[in-house]
Amino acid sequence: MKVAIVGTGYVGLVSATCLAEVGLDLICVDIDPAKIEVLKQCKSPIYEPGLEEMLQRNIQKGRLTFTTSLESVMEEVDVVFSAVGTPPDEDGSADLQYVLDVARTVGKYMTKYVLIVTKSTVPVGTAKLVERAIKDELIKRNVQIDYDVASNPEFLKEGDAIDDFMNPDRIVCGVSSDRAKALLEDIYKPFVLNGHPLIFTDIASAEMIKYAANAMLATRISFMNDIANLCEIVGADVNMVRKGIGSDQRIGSKFLHAGVGYGGSCFPKDVKALIKTADNLNYSLEVLKAVERVNDKQKLNLFDKLDKYYNHKLSGKRIALLGLAFKPNTDDMREAPSLVLIKKLLEYGCEIFAYDPVAMEESYRRIGNSVTYCDNLYDTLQGADAMLLVTEWSEFRILDLNKVKSLMKKPVIFDGRNIYDHKEMSDNGIDYFSIGRP
């Protein structure tokens, strides 16, 4: 079986590389010739731990090839995965133009039966639009060729994507025919043999599962951030609260860490898209609307603490900012809390010195030299009036506190991820503020 994956972004490239790793022949398709050339040189255009090494191995074994033309491979492939972007429109709905472009291309150039699988995160009902787009192209050609459309949403965490794909909690496939089901069973057979569950549903349910999963996780994050803010008011410790409720098997411990809000390519976009889908059907998802409001407010939590600490006199203050990516082990800054924080600090006249192990190039691409980029975390602290920790990279977890005090103009730390110990900071004469802890 030969498989094409259209789109070499995060989802497409990780999926293609991992499927090649278990022995499938993969053709990666992308309209960006520069990206394809980079991939042909065995280099990954995205940062993801372990991806480049796996990419190189499968290119060298001939299981992974690249092209800019989906048309040129339609005669040889049996399955086409669509993993193109679905960016949010201005109203929050998912932009499906790239998904439908892939469908139209398939319809224009298919010569035999093909299974078209949507792997991008798309609203419920997208499969019907894909099917219609293919059918319209076949009608224009005045030909009749069998095909199937399926949904196979991804559940990858940036920074852990390889392990998530190779050792999935579940593989969800929405199908409408036995033929489509059989092809997907063949593709995912190596994972089933390793004990990972393959779940078949109708297509609409598969499309909804992806959105519902991300919405639930986003809800847990906003819930804990709301609880954390209340903990500060009443004198409770959110870490103790998290352990207490997380020990309940009905709740579990994951995604209960308080912080400065969620970001990235999935949660913000998917929550907005699900809200918009419901609004279009005259149903209001009130819980998710509250989740969004809490998250937007939480991204300014550290700023509010800093502003209060300095009695609303921040102009001219030098701020050390640790972490730019929305989470560790990625350079992704889409919807990152750091961007909201930087904008607010600059608005109030602060001077920002920032460091991130991998995201500084991406930060420069987004906001230029509006902040000063440093070579390491201690360089950011030189003469700083405050340190703000935004992303919990491992290298930030242990600080030389004597060095911190000697470098900073005033030793005060605002910890947006609760990775430091209150008592240790206090014993070393450092003013310390965190999220949801007294």
What does this entry look like structurally?
The protein is 44% helix and 13% strand. With 438 residues, it is α/β, with parallel strands linked by helices. The chain folds into three domains: 2-201, Rossmann fold; 211-297, Rossmann fold, CATH 3.40.50; 299-433, NAD(P)-binding Rossmann-like Domain (Rossmann fold, 3-Layer(aba) Sandwich), CATH 3.40.50. Helix 5 (126-141) links the parallel strand 5 and strand 6 (147-151). The longest helix is centred in the middle third of the chain and has 32 residues, at 203-234. The chain is elongated, with a radius of gyration of 24 Å.
List the helices and strands and how they pair.
Elements (H helix, E strand, L loop, with lengths): L1 E5 L3 H12 L3 E5 L3 H8 L10 H10 L3 E4 L11 E4 L14 H13 L4 E5 L7 H16 L5 E5 L9 H6 L4 E4 L3 H10 L1 H5 L4 E4 L1 H32 L3 H9 L20 H14 L5 H13 L2 H9 L8 E5 L14 H11 L3 E5 L4 H8 L4 E2 L3 H5 L4 E4 L11 H7 L4 E4 L6 H6 L3 E3 L5
Parallel strand pairs: 1-2, 1-4, 2-3, 4-5, 5-6, 7-8, 9-10, 9-12, 10-11, 12-13, 13-14
